[in-house]
């Protein structure tokens, strides 16, 4: 599998968790701010669109939205 495949996979996981909780990028930016991470909704949209964000950003987002379990299986 290529790096591009892995980027699509992790991007899909994050987008699915946001969708499951009905959270948009603006609300995610606010929630990240609540844990001390300053990001704009535009920066978040760009990072997620690229899919090349860090593991740290990924975990910060999951923490901010209250996601404690991630399933890696494909639906």
Q: Can you give a write-up of this model?
A:
- The chain is an all-alpha fold and 75 residues long.
- It has one domain (3-64).
- It has helices spanning 3-20, 25-34, 41-50, 55-64.
- Helix 2 packs across helix 3.
- The chain is globular.
- The protein starts with a helix and ends in an 11-residue tail after the last helix.
- The relative contact order is 0.18.
- The model has no long low-confidence stretch (mean pLDDT 93).
Strand and helix map with partners:
Layout: H1 3-20, H2 25-34, H3 41-50, H4 55-64
List keywords for this structure.
single chain; 75 residues; mainly alpha; 0% strand
Concise synopsis of the structure shown:
The protein has 75 residues and is mainly alpha-helical. Helices cover 64% and strands 0% of the residues. 12% of the residues are buried.
| Average pLDDT | 93
The total of beta strands comes to 0
Question: What is the approximate shape?
Answer: globular
Portion of residues in beta strands equals under 5%
Order of helices and strands: HHHH
Number of domains: 1
How far from one another are the termini?
A: 18 Å
